[in-house]
Amino acid sequence: MKNKILMLALVSGIIFSCKKKEEQLSTDELKADVPQEQAAAVKECYEYTQKKDTIQANILVQGENVSGDLIYNLFEKDKNTGTITGTINGDTLKADYKFVSEGKESVRQVVFLRKNKTLLEGYGESEEKDGKMVFKSMKDLNFTSSLQLLEVPCK
Question: What is the dihedral of CA 20, 24, 26, 27, to 10 degrees?
Fold first, then answer.
C-alpha cells in the first residue's frame, strides 16, 4: 500500500511538473509574439568642410540600428555617394557603406567614433572578405584623423 501511495505521488508530481512547463512555454511564446516597442528614430547630420573638401553624413539612429547617407567629395579624388547601414554600440558606429564611384558600386566597412557632437572616422588595415572591404582588426583602428565631421542642423 505504501508503495502504491508513493508511486501515485511520484506520477502526480511528474504530471504537475510537465503541466507547469507547458504553461510556462505558452507564456514565453506569447511574449515572443508581442512586438517590442520600437525606440524613437533620431536624425543626426554631420559635415566636414575645408577648402575644397566636403564630407556629409545624414544618419537615422533607431535604438542600436543606424542607416543613412554618406557622401565624400574630396578635391582631386572621385566623389563617393552612398548609403550606410549598421549598428551603434556606445560611442562606436559600425556600418557597411554601399557607394558608387566612377560608375562602379562597391561596399566597404566604415567605423566612426561619435564624440562631443563630432564623428571621427576610423582608419586601419583592410582586406577583402565576401565582396567587401573590411578592417582586419577593430582594436587597431586609428581615430586621429583631422577630418572631423561636426554636427550640423539637418536640412
Answer: 140
CA 117 to CA 113: how far, in whole Å?
Answer: 10
Longest Cα–Cα distance of the chain, Å, equals 97
Tell me the C-alpha to C-alpha distance, in Å, between residue 82 and each of 14, 16, 23, 69, 70.
60, 59, 50, 6, 6
- Under the phi-then-psi rule, with left for phi > 0, alpha for psi from -120 to 50, and beta for the rest, what region is 110? beta
Find where cell 556606445 sits. Answer: 90
Contact 91, 99 (CB under 8 A): no
150: CB partners within 8 A, 6+ apart: 46, 47, 48, 117, 118
User: What backbone torsions phi and psi does residue 105 show, to the nearest 5 degrees?
Assistant: -90, 135
Span 18-62, pLDDT tens digits:
444 444 544 445 445 545 566 789 999 999 999 999 999 999 999
